[in-house]
Amino acid sequence: MVRRPRDDSDQRLEVVVIHRPGREDWSFPKGKLDPGETLEECALREVTEETGLECRTVRFIGSTAYRDRRGRAKTVAYWLMEPLKGEFEPSGEVDELRWVEASEASQILTYSRDRELLAAVVESGSTSQGLNAPTPVESKAG
């Protein structure tokens, strides 16, 4: 989950949500683990591939478990991240990226598991400037 301060410097932050045209969904960036890659390395690589943003991880924030549209079991690990550099370029995999406040993200996100993760992060204070202890989230909902 990539976050940044809002431009109007009112202490609120925005998070990245992406649209994947092949699935017609709005989600957080995520992907598959490459051989020999750690979960954190995978998260950083996938965020860069899908958003064009090179980020630094702040901390682990949780994981979700679900079955994909083909019925395969999937587990995704998430880190709170901050962008260092980069720019979004639309692709066949991701055609739109939006920076939105948490309340708007919860309205846009397609899957309940993503909304639950966001709610837990917001509740823990992790989208604000001051970081609290991690709030792992386990979700079986789709």
Key attributes of the depicted protein:
single chain; 142 residues; alpha+beta; Nucleoside Triphosphate Pyrophosphohydrolase; 6 strands
Description of the structure:
Helix content is 23%, strand content 35%. It is an alpha+beta fold and 142 residues long. The strands form two sheets. Strands 1, 2, 3 and 6 form a four-stranded antiparallel sheet that branches. Strands 4-5 form a two-stranded antiparallel sheet. α2 packs antiparallel against α3. The longest helix has 13 residues. 23% of the residues are buried. The C terminus is likely disordered.
Please identify, by name, the CATH architecture: Alpha-Beta Complex
Assign the CATH class: Alpha Beta
Radius of gyration: 14 Å
| Cα separation of the termini | 18 Å
Oligomer: single chain
What amount of the residues lies in strands?
Answer: 25-35%
CATH superfamily: Nucleoside Triphosphate Pyrophosphohydrolase
DSSP summary, beta strand count: 6
Choose one word for the global shape.
Answer: globular
Helix and strand content put the structural class at: alpha+beta
* CATH topology title: Nucleoside Triphosphate Pyrophosphohydrolase
List the domain count as a whole number. Answer: 1
Can you give the helix content as a percent range?
10-25%
Rounded mean pLDDT is: 87
The topology string of helices and strands comes to EEEHEEEHH
The low-pLDDT segments are: 129-142
Number of helical elements: 3
The major β-sheet equals: 4 strands, antiparallel
